[in-house]
Amino acid sequence: MMQQDGGRERINIAIDGPAGAGKSTVARKVAEQLGYVYIDTGAMYRAVTLSALRSGIDPLDGPEIASHAASLDIRLLPGEQGQRVLLNGEDVTEEIRSREVTQNVSQVAANGAVRRLLAEKQRRLADRKGVVMDGRDIGSHVLPDAELKVFLTASASERALRRYREIGDAQGVSLEQLEREIEERDRMDRERDVSPLVCASDAVVMDSTAMTIEEVCSAIVSLSRTKLAEAK
User: Fold this and answer.
1) Residue 105 maps to which CATH number?
2) Is 17 assigned to a binding site?
3) How do 37-40 and 131-135 pair as beta strands?
4) CA-CA 20 to 30 A from 208: which of 26, 146, 155, 216?
5) Is 20 flagged in the annotation as binding?
6) pTM metric for this prediction
């Protein structure tokens, strides 16, 4: 149900899609343009992964990971350069994007107890509407009642190229290796037992392979305004 904030009508927007499709960048910009709150759910899973790795916990140790996640205080705060991620009060915004975290986050995200824990946190954040939330299962599981759902995708080769341009040679990985890793992560996300990566039946599918970030954002903002008009 659409809500109002000081007379201004608001909806929730769910943006799902595979790794490297540009969800976080797009969601953040859409939120800025609409004056909404941006919530990067992937950052929450990355924070759990980072903390587990620091503590020497095997990402495949389901019970231990779940217990560890329950003990963490993860907060998402707005910042001048985008969303900041605090882990037990420490700013880990940069650390959660490390290659080690990226290679292990899918295993942590496949943990049912962790997903239930974080999904509940995410739903509470969206209670008042006016939220743009991105992830793998937002429209299908976390916010199934979101007024606008977008499934943002792109070819694996294009997603690998975007990631390569992002990290350059800093992490010593080739474009070909990145593409293989993205394809493997896609497989893991699709095949996990708990809240797998799926396109919600009522989502708008948007292939960004040949689109600029600005074009994707403009299209989503336009869709959101149409949804608002329909709800009046």
Assistant:
1) 3.40.50.300
2) yes
3) parallel
4) 146
5) yes
6) 0.82
